[in-house]
Write a structure and sequence with these properties.
The complex is a heterodimer of chains A (186) and B (253).
Chain A (H helix, E strand, L loop, with lengths): L2 H23 L9 H9 L2 H19 L8 H16 L6 H27 L5 H12 L4 H30 L2 H4 L3 H4 L1
Helix pairs in contact in A: 1-2, 1-3, 2-3, 2-4, 3-4, 4-5, 5-7, 6-7
Chain B lengths: L9 H4 L2 H17 L3 H17 L3 H25 L5 E4 L2 E4 H27 L2 H10 L4 H30 L8 H6 L1 H14 L1 H10 L18 H26 L1
Antiparallel strand pairs in B: 1-2
Classes of the chains: A mainly alpha (186), B mainly alpha (253).
């Protein structure tokens, strides 16, 4: 990785960890903790995006003190690879294609995170998703179905908004700034 | 409290790799344990580690605060709503297998949180960077782990300023979900575009400090590592491997 890539990875990690502050202020029912990873994937490529995702996961554990969720690092790698492929296909050029790509990403991310949540943590992970799982379980859904439904519901919305936001950011880049990212021109 | 606490305990004086290996061993061993008794032995091991580091009180309190919501959710999801044979606990009817599962999962989280809070409280970030440099860890990795933590407070402060400025200009944070999603743009865009505009400046600053040099860096004050500590680290790795081997033998048997 070049120095430039390193600085961009650091930026991606910082965005992943700080955007939650804005999400909380807006009381949105999502996390958006992969916006930085998706942005780095679009600006630089898969290697840097994977680094951003993994470092985000480790630093989030360092900040919160809870290292139990480290198995979810696999999901960050999947997000980085998918977002890089979506960027190469030009899906972040228009808002509707970006949101559609986000729905696809949400589906894939949930398909990875739901089995981890079910088999490793028996459905109890961080905050919001577990509350949805508990509500579904209370109305009679089997645990596996409740975990999967909660994961898909939150991830589809979360990743659709995250990809839409990355599209808005890329379109908002001044030309002089955009020209510094060769991956963006591709 | 989460983070480094000054001290002179054996864990403070140990090589950072030893402290982190201890915490890592608890993390991996926790997922190998499937019985409430063995998981709670691991919680006790985490508490012993915290006591050795002289941070038992603060680490146990923070671990309790962090794992309490998970405990509540575990008991609702598995104890109250779980299936199988029921046991009466006062006015409540609980699932026996669900309670056992909640004890295992909750114990796992508590052991992991406790041991890592102890590792964070007794490992000086400066000594860790020095140890990594002395071991020849590439600059990029130490930079990403250590430098990002210093950037976060600045980014948080900037996010707060943008939030206040946009509210002064009349941005409403409430309303429907669609309206709140639309408000994301005016808040996130200045934060991220501003940070992107500074990238070149930061690359230049790193370049003049020789960050791009491929040569191995010299640590100025590397922490001492001893044969005993190396042996402890290898023994922990063997113990974790043995725990997984035992788990798989029991699963097949």
């Amino acid at each position: 990785m070049t120095l430039r890539d390193l600085v961009l990875v650091r930026l991606g990690v910082a965005v992943n960890l700080v955007i939650g502050q804005i999400v909380v202020a807006l009381l949105l029912p999502v996390y958006l903790d992969s916006v930085g990873t998706i942005l780095v994937a679009a600006l630089v490529g898969p290697r840097a995006a994977i680094a951003a995702g993994l470092v985000s996961q480790v630093l989030s554990a360092v900040i919160s003190g809870n290292f139990s969720w480290l198995p979810f690092a696999v999901v960050q790698i999947v997000i980085a690879l998918y977002a890089s492929a979506a960027a190469r296909l030009g899906l972040f050029r228009r808002l509707w294609t970006a949101v559609a790509a986000g729905v696809g990403l949400g589906f894939i991310a949930a398909s990875c995170s739901a089995p981890i949540s079910y088999f490793v943590f028996s459905g109890v992970t961080a905050g919001g998703v577990t509350v949805v799982t508990t509500v579904l379980r209370a109305v009679g859904a089997p645990l596996g179905v409740a975990v999967a439904a909660a994961s898909y519901a939150t991830d589809l919305l979360d990743k659709a908004i995250a990809c839409g936001l990355v599209c808005v950011i890329l379109r908002g880049l001044p030309r002089t700034l955009a020209a510094r990212f060769p991956a963006l021109a591709r | 409290m989460i983070g480094y606490v000054e001290g002179r305990s054996p864990l403070h004086r140990a090589h950072p790799y030893t402290t982190l290996t201890l915490a890592g061993a608890v993390l991996f061993a926790a997922f190998a344990m499937t019985e409430p008794f063995t998981v709670w032995l691991l919680v006790l091991a985490g508490a012993a580690l915290a006591a050795t580091g002289g941070v038992l009180r603060s680490s146990a309190r923070t671990a309790l605060i962090l794992s309490l919501p998970i405990w509540v959710l575990l008991f609702v999801l598995h104890g109250l709503l779980g299936g199988g044979a029921r046991v009466a606990a006062g006015p409540l009817s609980l699932s026996a297998t669900g309670v056992a599962r909640a004890l295992v999962l909750g114990g796992r989280v508590t052991a992991i949180v406790l041991s890592f809070l102890t590792a964070l409280a007794t490992t000086s970030p400066h000594r860790l960077v020095e140890a990594m440099t002395a071991r020849g860890v590439p600059f990029g990795r130490t930079f990403l782990l250590a430098s990002t933590l210093t950037v976060l407070p600045r980014m948080r402060e900037r996010a707060t300023r943008i939030l206040e400025a946009q509210q002064c200009r009349g941005l409403r944070l409430g309303g429907s979900v669609a309206a709140r999603v639309r408000a994301l743009g005016p808040l996130a865009l200045p934060l991220i575009l501003g940070a992107l505009a500074e990238v070149d400046e930061q690359v230049l600053a790193l370049d003049v400090r020789g960050a791009a040099a491929a040569d191995r860096r010299t640590a100025l004050d590397p922490p001492a590592d001893t044969a005993v500590q190396r042996m402890v680290r290898w023994s922990l790795l063997v113990l974790v491997a043995a725990a997984y081997a035992w788990k798989f033998i029991r699963m097949r048997g």
